[in-house]
Amino acid sequence: MAEDFNPEQKRYLEGFASGIAAARLTGGLALGQGGGGGAPAEPTGPDAIHIRAQDATVKAGGKLCDQEKWKRAENPFEGHNRLISEAATGSAPKPEDNFRWRYHGLFWVAPAQNSYMCRLRIPNGILQHWQFAGIADLADAHGGGYSHVTTRANLQVREIAPEHGQPFLDGLIDLGLTARGAGADNIRNVTGSPVAGIDAQELLDTRPLAKSWHNWILNDRSLFGLPRKFNVAFDGGGVMPVLEETNDIGFQAVRVLEGANVEAGVWMRLVLGGISGHRDLARDTGVVLRPAECNRVADAILRVFIQNGDRTNRNKSRMKYVLDAWGFDKYLAAVEEVLGRKLDRVDPAHIAPRGRMDRFAHVGVHRQVQAGLNWIGVILPVGKMTSDQMRALAKIAAECGDGAIRMTVWQNFLFSGVPDAKVAEVEARVAALGLTTEASSIRAGLVACTGSRGCKFAASDTKGHALVIADYIEANLKELDVPVNVHLTGCHHSCAQHYIGDIGLIGAKVVVSEEGDTVEGYDIVVGGGFGDSPKIGTEIWKAVKAEDCPGRIEALLRAYLKGRESQAESFQA
Ligand code: SF4
Fold this sequence. Notes:
Elements: H1 7-16, H2 19-32, H3 48-59, H4 66-73, H5 80-87, H6 95-102, E1 106-109, E2 115-119, E3 126-128, H7 129-142, E4 146-149, E5 155-160, H8 165-174, E6 191-192, H9 207-218, E7 232-235, E8 249-256, E9 265-272, E10 283-289, H10 294-308, H11 319-326, H12 328-339, E11 344-345, E12 364-367, E13 373-378, E14 384-386, H13 387-400, E15 404-407, E16 413-419, H14 423-432, E17 446-448, H15 462-476, E18 486-489, E19 503-511, E20 518-526, E21 538-545, H16 549-563
Parallel strand pairs: 6-7, 7-8, 17-18, 18-19
Antiparallel strand pairs: 1-2, 2-5, 3-15, 4-5, 4-14, 8-9, 9-10, 10-11, 12-13, 13-16, 15-16, 19-20, 20-21
Helix pairs in contact: 1-2, 2-3, 3-10, 4-6, 7-8, 7-13, 10-12, 11-12, 15-16
Bound molecules: iron/sulfur cluster.
Family: Belongs to the nitrite and sulfite reductase 4Fe-4S domain family.
Pfam family, one: NIR_SIR_ferr
Domain Nitrite/Sulfite reductase ferredoxin-like: 114-172, 366-432
């Protein structure tokens, strides 16, 4: 038996798991080890595309990383009932089962919380009020009684005991929701413009596209178990950004002008390779698609990635690295081969500039395209809401709005469809819950990942420090009159996308004594951007103690206020 396997994996090979999985595993690896078991059978079924890619990796002399071996030893969907049985005993999962649970949306959080976190799937970030209230009930019954809005316009519920994991997932099904594929090497929550369908500026309503792609993924198991995680976003061209440039695939609604080589009108521009934590934003491919083509083209892009992504080194396994190695032309040629046709390309000169973005569109009251109706953005303290607040907010949406609650990538949410006559009531009811529809220049763009309170990778308490920074700047820099995005991320995974903030902080342990004692702190980058001014920020300070960060940020902002020629000059400039 291959020496690469730990005892648990050998147990599967010896027949604990399905014989088919074991046969695939031994057969595949034999290829890379000089044979000995004869030619393996050609794989079939939904995992065949992945098995062939793994076999090719091994045949070329590569050593599959642990996660690839775990996927192959037991498909996480086929292992579901075993996972449930073991979780029902209240035990913590083994590392490989922690990975497998993530296919079902549950993440074991240890040692910080010794419980599961569940990350949902909410296409385009939009829930109905009864779903929102239902999630609050589930968080009370099975979790810690609170939820967080994430930077993918999604919800996470924490402190779910092992034996409550499956009941929580069952409850999601009752609400018409799922967490399937929300973690591990899968396509993450599908984001779309938060004000889709209500924004006068938008070119296209992203809701049907996001929902359609969400269902496309969920109904094709071959699109699970990629070389690494994968993000897709749809931007409708409206006032509120969706940060599609930080996604592996971004679809941007654009207006193609008369005189181009394709029919004038609204098309989706294809941008590829965004991964801000690796200091790269998605770049324009020159390709434009009809909106109805997005699913099929995204599917083809994924199949090229599945066949060619790196399955040996987790640090190089995102699609960006295939693009870097091949270049766009080769990658798109492979996509066209899968599709069996050429993609349309348009010279950028024939595409109208994108409409303006409003950095405050996710905060406060804004007129909808529908006469007499408004959306109202509510600020949450770095994304957190108690279950009681959620139920009350759901009631407001039902009684004063159109019943929808729209999450944004700014870790907050919007009410929509609020008549003019109800706006004041919404503001008062939100304030009574200890929340606000108004935000200072610093608080409106404050984004923080989970941090050390709930993530083992974190070097610092990002959420706690974010609130300290906001309090400090509000008290000491009242003259700040433009929105500033401050993003705090706990580690190199960059869940809070620190490289695209005006000011970005990435957790770092700061050595404070000759004995090597450390305290929490951050490396600080400045000048990042998104939307109409995308840019990766530049590091200016390393290892700043957390207690010193508010003062450093104040100094940066004072320098900006002093040096700018007008309010219109961005922090990035
Ligand atoms: Fe955890 Fe790192 Fe993501 Fe923060 S950025 S939530 S510390 S993995």
